[in-house]
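Same chain as my last thread, 201 residues:
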Amino acid sequence: MPLAEKALTLAMALMLPAALASAAAPAGLSPEQVREAIRWGLSAPEPALAQYEMKTERTWLVNFDTPFLRVAQLSRAMKIQNTPVTEADVSPKTAADEVHIYAHARPEGVTGRVTLPNIEHLFIVRTREGASEPIQPSSVQSFVRRVPMGDDWSGPTRIARSVKAIFPRQAFAPGNEVRLVFEGGEVQSVRITEDMLARVR
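reply #2:
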């Protein structure tokens, strides 16, 4: 991305306030969909309950979840604790029609004393009739995370800042782009595609 466009993108991200930060959660899964997600969480293979991958680069990754997946994950987690979940146990926030996007540093392929990236912010850009419109998250959380530098947690770790951002599901549409803003001002884009959404529940 050209430097001028990076600067403009960063400016839009920092100048526009997060929309609807205090608004009520949007309507989400129907009662039948909640029950279906609970059943699926009890029987689905473990890999199917992982967050959906958007993009994996050498030092960072982006993934996301949906209301159906969040309910299924809750169902599986409570099953492990021998506490079955019912429809009444699922909060409106968990089932809300929102997509949660997560951006993290990752160590795979990293050698030597390379610094893992700190992710400062993320937002979505929608393009209409040649004009770019930034969509700010309704909620954003920045947190520090220990990143293992080996295949497991038994070896050394490093600290890196991650971001979780929440968007209305309608913003997570094919053709839109997720923009990651890194410490220092670098911006990376991940396009939302039809193929990416075809496997999503």
